[in-house]
Amino acid sequence: MFNPFSNRQRGSFNPGILAACDQVLDMWTYRQNQSRPDAGFGSGAADVAYPTFPSSTIGRDRPQAVIRNDRRLHMLMNDVYWSLGQRKFDQYEHFVTAVTEHNEHISPGNNGWQPEREIFPTPITVTYEARWKDDDDLLELVIGESGQKLMMGIFLFKLNNLSCEFFADADEHFFEGLDPKSQTEFSLIVGS
After folding, report:
1. What are phi and psi of 44, to 5 degrees?
2. CB atoms closer than 10 angstroms to residue 98
3. Rounded to whole angstroms, how far apart are CA atoms 27 and 70?
4. Looking at the DSSP assignment, which residues form a beta bridge with residue 143?
5. What is the mean pLDDT of residues 51-57?
6. Can you tell me the distance from the alpha carbon of 167 to that of 161, in angstroms, rounded to the nearest whole number?
7. 66 CB burial (10 A radius; 0-12, 13-18, 19+)
8. Angle 192-87-117 from CA coordinates, rounded to 5°
9. What are the backbone angles phi and psi of residue 96, rounded to the nearest 5°?
């Protein structure tokens, strides 16, 4: 396990500590700004999906622990909690109520569930490859309507209903966010 202070006792300081501290500070600043629609790292929609971080956190001298955790910093909706494959919802309002209750139960007052928040200005493609299935193991969904902003609530509602059968018997079915693959393509991240 990475310990940034491991060389401190011998009179030297690990050179990766500054990059690690920058990364933690940037992550904290980004999470603080997520709850403020007027704040963030810019005003464009790309800033919602792709927050930027100082160049001091990029390079080979960065500690492995920071590199492994980088993915979560760039993920979309990684602090929204939901269980896929449990049931379909006929009404959007009932779905929003269920997700709100679930998020407040899992992480009261400290979750990113904001159903009316824009997450992308265009439709997005979401893919997931199931490791537990032998056939039909690739889920590929286009979610959103052309010319309309994609809101968090609508996205999760459609993802839930479109993937319900796919995740029905899965051990890994807890939504953990979206990992960007390209400008409008994301990998679905689920856990158990």
Report:
1. -85, 160
2. 16
3. 10
4. 124
5. 38
6. 10
7. buried
8. 80
9. -60, -40
CA dihedral for 101, 105, 109, 112, sign (positive or negative): negative
**By the 8 A CB rule, do 180 and 50 touch?**
yes
The CB-side HSE value for 46 (13 A sphere, CA atoms) comes to: 3
pLDDT in tens, 115-167: 999 999 999 999 998 876 666 688 999 999 999 999 999 999 999 999 999 98
Long-range CB contacts (within 8 A, 24+) of 36-43: 37/117
Contact 85, 118 (CB under 8 A): no
- Residue 93 DSSP code: H
Distance CA 179, CA 192 (A): 17
**Sign of the Cα pseudo-torsion (160, 37, 22, 120, in order):** positive
Separation of alpha carbons 8 and 46, rounded Å = 40
Q: What are phi and psi of 88, to 5 degrees?
A: -90, 150
Q: Which residue in the block uniquely carries the two structure tokens 């796919």?
A: 166
Structural domain boundaries of the chain?
A: 8-74, 82-191
- The Cα 122–Cα 43 span in angstroms is 16
Number of C-beta neighbours around residue 1 at 10 A: 5
